[in-house]
Design goal:
alpha/beta, GMP Synthetase, Chain A, domain 3, 7-stranded mixed β-sheet
């Protein structure tokens, strides 16, 4: 079937379409109902069905004779370790660890925070939670203790599972010490902390509430528990403009259906393929396409503990592809930009045999045309930029290569994926003309796999996603459609900053900047960065009569953001201005300032209080060489 017909079928009869796709899975109780609206304002898919995600990812393959197939390849250039784990061995580890959790009193509906580096034990912990019906919340290991503490207070986990350390730029990041600090700050108190000790001389376990990961592997084993399809599999926190993380809830049955569908029809992979999502387990790509989707489909997935460059060089990705015979690579444009920066002529690529690679998928932030064209030329293979969100859990726009291999277009995120009825709307909720930019929204109900709610926050769920355009889900992004139906995603309509695919809160950074005694007012925005997509820039107004050195203030703010949010924010720049441009109603014109820094075209808003301030902003950015327009 061609893409257009297949897609239209998913829009015209959602219920029949997705009930048919759900049959790709092994259910304990096959659902008869496709979807219902839930009390939170979202959609519950397959509400009368029962299944278990861990069972689908592991037991099913072992029972069907694929137990000796490789489930995980752990490739860690920072430690020099390469380990291959079969489906049978992984099932054995997961069922034992699940029994250990159950022995601690962890069970159906309990929450568990996982704060770990890129090691197989993190996947074991995730799957063990799924096996017994505990709800895991993985927190990116690069987050500082304050960020972890906020998530502890919101998720209220019974236990935290962590590790002694991670490795970043050849340095050990002592996770256990970060957890200790976070637990002191958090109001919620956990029952236990479990640590995987990577070496015998790691941080000592200092109390009876701290347990060794391996000690939980000696409590027998436990089978997979059949769970309602609507049971939360995990909570994944994503930044909001208020600075308070939003807990995106992922169900089990709808998510499993969407992942199986996407692997077959979007990525066009089959059982036994080596599929590599070069992400981190702390992000949605890691959840969906490093852990659950590849294992669900019987693929080999790669856990890579390293960087695209300097581990040891810009040929690292190509070495992994050759060595492990990767067929599909999924990474962020940031990674490709880093490789391009250090190996512009792709001399290192020429050293490796990457004939196994069929296609490259990009997501996390918009892939700029220059990067798209460079990697397309060097690989001489399809390069597909596609778009989705933590909230969706799987792609919303892309090229469905398992249906019809339509040509990717530079700068575009492709076409709507089955189930997503996507519209571009103006401020009044009316579809815009072809080529005009507007709000990207999705007509309700959302397809399976998308968030049915936020964790314990119905008000924020309705307010943030459903209220602006009744009958639609507001994505928070803007974009347009060209004459051939390709969608272009241009950026956020809110103030979330996308640093290397990591969505960080500008509002939270502003709160930190404003906490300095000398600062009267500030604005933090994401400006274009050649390597990371965006990076934060703070413009600050000093209190009257305060004399302060710009360099000293900048250094103090950089350290403050690093301590409270983490190095992942890449906060490096703060500049002093006399005042900030605002509308007459007092709204700070962040988008206009961002356009000045990026060298983008913009219209001076008719509501601006004093247009002359924009000239001062430009002069300050030029003096400091801040922004692509002044470099």
């Amino acid at each position: 079937m061609d893409y257009a017909s297949f897609y239209q079928q998913s829009i015209d009869d959602k219920a029949s379409f997705w009930k048919e796709q759900s049959r790709l899975l092994k259910w304990d109780t096959q659902p008869q109902i496709a979807f219902v609206e839930n009390k939170h304002g979202g959609t519950d898919w397959f509400p009368d069905g029962k299944l278990n995600m861990c069972d689908l990812c592991l037991d099913t393959h072992v029972l069907s004779g694929h137990g000796l197939d490789i489930a995980i390849i752990y490739d860690s250039p920072v430690t020099g370790v390469i380990e291959k784990i079969t489906y049978k061995a992984l099932l054995d580890q997961v069922s034992k660890f699940a029994a250990g959790l159950r022995n601690l009193g962890i069970g159906h509906g309990d929450t568990v925070i996982i704060y770990m580096p890129m090691i197989p034990q993190a996947v074991v912990a995730m799957l063990a939670c799924a096996r017994i019906g505990a709800i895991h919340s993985v927190v990116f290991g690069g987050f500082a203790p304050h960020e972890l503490a906020m998530r502890i207070d919101d998720a209220k986990p019974k236990i935290i599972i962590s590790a002694s350390y991670g490795i970043e730029q050849d340095q050990k990041i002592h996770y256990k010490r970060l957890v200790d600090v976070a637990l002191k700050e958090a109001k919620h108190k956990t029952l236990y902390q479990i640590y995987y000790r990577r070496q015998d001389n790691d941080d000592a376990i200092s109390s009876r509430f701290e347990l060794d990961f391996e000690s939980l592997m000696h409590c027998g084993s436990v089978g997979a528990r059949a769970l309602p399809a609507t049971h939360p599999l995990y909570i994944l926190y994503t930044s909001g403009t208020t600075g308070t993380p939003k807990g995106v809830v992922r169900d089990t049955g709808g998510y499993a259906t969407a992942l199986a569908f996407s692997m077959k029809y979007i990525y066009n992979v089959k059982q036994g393929d080596v599929y590599w999502a070069a992400s981190d387990i702390g992000w949605v790509v890691g959840h969906s396409f490093m852990v659950y989707a590849p294992l669900l489909c019987g693929c080999t997935t790669i856990i890579y503990e390293g960087k695209p460059v300097r581990t040891p060089d810009a040929g690292a990705f190509w070495r992994v592809i050759e060595q492990h015979k990767v067929s599909t690579l999924f990474t962020a444009p940031t990674a490709i930009r880093a490789i391009k920066k250090e190996d512009h002529e792709a001399a290192l690529l020429a050293k490796y045999d990457i004939s196994s690679l069929r296609q490259l998928f990009l997501a996390g932030e918009r892939c700029d045309p220059a990067t798209f064209e460079w990697i397309s030329e060097k690989l001489n293979r399809p390069v597909i930029d596609h778009w989705w969100q933590t909230e969706s859990g799987w792609p919303m726009l892309g090229i469905m290569t398992g249906v019809e291999s339509l040509a990717p277009r530079s700068g575009a995120a492709g076409f709507p994926v089955c189930g997503y009825n996507i519209a571009v709307l103006n401020e009044e909720g009316v579809p815009v003309k072809q080529g005009d930019e507007g709000y990207i929204a999705v007509k309700l109900p959302l397809p399976p796999g998308c968030l049915p709610q936020l964790w314990n926050n119905d008000y924020r769920f309705r307010k943030g996603y459903l209220e602006k355009f009744p009958g639609y889900y507001l994505t928070g992004d803007s974009g347009f459609v060209d004459k051939d139906g390709y969608y272009f995603i241009m950026g956020r309509i809110d103030d979330v900053i996308n640093v290397s695919g990591h969505r960080l809160s500008a509002g939270e950074m502003e709160e930190l900047v404003a906490s300095r005694p000398a600062v009267a007012e500030c604005a933090v925005m994401g400006i274009a960065d050649e390597l990371r997509g965006q990076r934060p820039l703070a413009l600050i107004v000093l209190k009257d009569g305060v004399l302060a050195d710009e360099g000293d203030i900048e250094a103090a703010l950089v350290q403050l953001v690093r301590d409270k949010i983490g190095a992942v924010a890449f906060f490096k720049s703060a500049a002093i201005v006399s005042r900030l441009p605002k509308t007459r109603s007092g709204k700070i014109l962040r988008k206009t300032m961002r356009a000045i820094a990026d060298g983008s075209e913009f219209k001076v808003p008719s509501t601006i209080d004093d247009p002359s301030i924009l000239d001062e902003i430009a002069d300050v950015l030029k003096r400091r060489k801040l922004g692509m327009a002044f470099q």
